[in-house]
Design goal:
With about 325 residues, the protein is mainly beta. It is about 10% helix and about 35% strand. Strand 3, helix 2 and strand 4 form a beta-alpha-beta unit. Its main location: secreted.
Length: about 325
């Protein structure tokens, strides 16, 4: 009897561990959005995604488009490689989460919201995006409360991650950007002044790994908070603040970045930048100008020692790590 009881106990422990591993592999590890995505505003208290609805697993583009476009909350687990062209529209109250470390969106991208169906309260985690025919992820059409976390983005056609057209309260965390030129844009264009007053975005613990530019490139957003990111071998520039954007750049690590921070870029007018506590290894001097609102007016945060980022960010960013 003792032997049977002991065996049953061992089996129970193994089952519990296996269940925990499976849950984490599905991207459902206990975690909540921080930064601007955590703010109580615009009728939404933080970013919860599809937590209020059922969980489904998808393996095809048709299934993904179906659940992503439904008008009720869903947690959508992506399993394996899904190949399609163009963009799938994601509407409000969705979590799209990769299973394990192999879930991939190949050839297409995700667009949060349309002009008639908003993409508010959306979470995208643990997915590899590759070979997008347009943007890999487009946060647009006044989407708010969006959390983009622990993804791998590379080899797209246009931007890997664009945030624009009155979108706001967005957090971009622990993503690996690589093998691409235009990484992440905030603000549609110099002439799209409707973005003024929106585009509140937090970037933290992202790995900008050899990408050329836009880490981010910001128009109008105020404030955009860029902290504890690791920049390595970015040949054009790190961050650009333009068109009166307000960007706070703090406690990041720049390695081999000749132009870590621009005030104004190309034909765009100058923005505002406050920088503090950054490390510039074999990198140029940052440009700064003006003042920027303190993000602590909206949320609290704790800075990591930037000297640790070349180790901790590559080890923690990307897929299979939540």
């Amino acid at each position: 009897m003792r032997h049977r009881a002991f065996t049953a106990a061992i089996i129970a422990v193994v089952v519990s561990i296996s269940t925990l591993v499976a849950v984490k592999a599905a991207g459902a590890a206990v975690a909540t959005a921080d930064g601007f995505a955590s703010v109580d505003a615009l009728g939404q208290n933080g970013t919860t995604g599809g937590a209020a609805g059922p969980t489904v697993t998808v393996t095809t583009a048709a299934q993904l488009a179906d659940y992503a476009g439904r008008n009720t909350p869903f947690t959508i687990l992506v399993q394996g490689r899904i190949t399609f062209d163009d963009m799938i529209t994601v509407v409000a109250n969705k979590s799209i989460i990769g299973v394990g470390s192999t879930a991939t969106i190949d050839g297409g991208g995700l667009q949060l919201g349309s002009t008639t169906r908003p993409g508010n309260n959306v979470i995208i985690r643990n997915l590899t995006f590759v070979n997008a025919s347009d943007d890999s992820i487009s946060v647009t059409n006044a989407a708010h409360h969006v959390w983009i976390d622990h993804n791998d983005l590379s080899n797209g056609y246009d931007g890997l991650l664009d945030i624009k057209r009155k979108s706001t309260f967005v957090t971009v965390s622990w993503n690996h950007f690589h093998h691409h030129s235009k990484s992440t844009l905030v603000g549609h264009s110099d002439s799209w002044t409707q973005d003024v007053g929106y585009l509140k975005v937090t970037y933290h613990h992202n790995y900008f790994d050899g990408t050329d530019q836009r880490h981010p490139r910001v128009r109008f957003g105020d404030p955009v908070h860029v902290y504890n990111n690791y920049y390595r071998d970015n040949p054009l520039y790190g961050i650009a603040s333009t068109e009166n954007a307000g960007v706070l750049v703090e406690a990041n690590y720049f390695r081999n970045v000749a132009h870590p921070i621009h005030v104004g870029y190309d034909r765009s007018g100058p923005g505002r930048v406050v920088e503090r506590g950054n490390i510039y290894e074999n990198s140029g001097a940052p440009q700064t100008a003006g003042t920027v609102a303190d993000p602590r007016q909206w949320y609290s945060y704790t800075l990591d020692n930037p000297a640790t980022l070349p180790t901790t960010v590559p080890a923690g960013a990307g897929v299979g790590k939540i």
